[in-house]
Design a protein that fits this description.
mainly alpha; 8 helices; globular
Length: about 210
């Protein structure tokens, strides 16, 4: 019994990791409330989750806060355009919902493809910004290359991000539990799963840097 209570036991490490996920999730959601800072908050979350996935020794909250502050200015170069694109997508979806069935289906398909392309870019852009210091233009080019060059990993990352929405859509009774899951731990947990998927590539890039 005493072995289970040791700080380096598997059980205690699991509890510690779960607590870190809850704390980082809460910090990230709070920092996302002012929409303009959400880009930096997501970058900070990804930084900490990647460090956890790489099993690095890290001070979780301190690392999150340091990343938030250091990436806040650069996030203003890419996050506001993402918000604009999201708003345009919602507006366009509302407009085409009033069109004919055929036209609405075609435009909705094109819109969904565009959203997937943006998300595929973002799942690589965020960790690149979190770990590498260069201009946003270079980050965008590298993110596009990774999104296409590591298409399997990109697809897996998108599946992780889409899973809560898929569950809520397929099982309406699960919408409330899914919402609570996202509030308590979901955003950080998704970032951790994405970090596990991307860890090998990020490790190789950091070795070259």
């Amino acid at each position: 019994m005493t072995a289970w209570l040791r700080h380096d036991s598997p059980a205690m490490r699991a509890w510690s990791a779960a607590a870190d996920l809850v704390v980082i999730n809460l910090l990230t959601l709070l920092a996302c409330l002012p929409l303009i800072t959400a880009g930096a908050a997501l970058t900070a979350c990804m930084r900490v989750m990647m460090e956890m996935a790489r099993e690095e020794e890290t001070y979780t909250v301190r690392s999150w806060w340091r990343s938030l502050r250091s990436n806040l200015r650069q996030s203003l170069a890419w996050w506001p355009p993402v918000l604009v694109l999201a708003a345009l997508a919602l507006w366009e979806q509302a407009v085409i919902s009033r069109a004919g069935a055929l036209e609405a289906g075609i435009v909705s398909g094109l819109l969904a493809a565009g959203v997937l392309m943006v998300l595929a870019l973002l799942v690589w852009l965020v960790p690149l910004i979190a770990f590498f210091e260069t201009g946003i233009g270079r980050h965008l080019v590298n993110a596009a290359r990774l999104a296409l060059g590591a298409l399997g990993r990109t697809t897996a990352c998108l599946a992780v991000l889409a899973a809560p929405l898929a569950v809520a859509w397929a099982a309406p009774a699960m919408r409330a539990p899914t919402a609570w899951f996202m509030v308590l731990i979901g955003v950080a947990f998704q970032a951790y799963l994405v970090a596990l998927i991307q860890r090998g590539i990020i490790n190789r890039l950091r070795q070259r840097a």
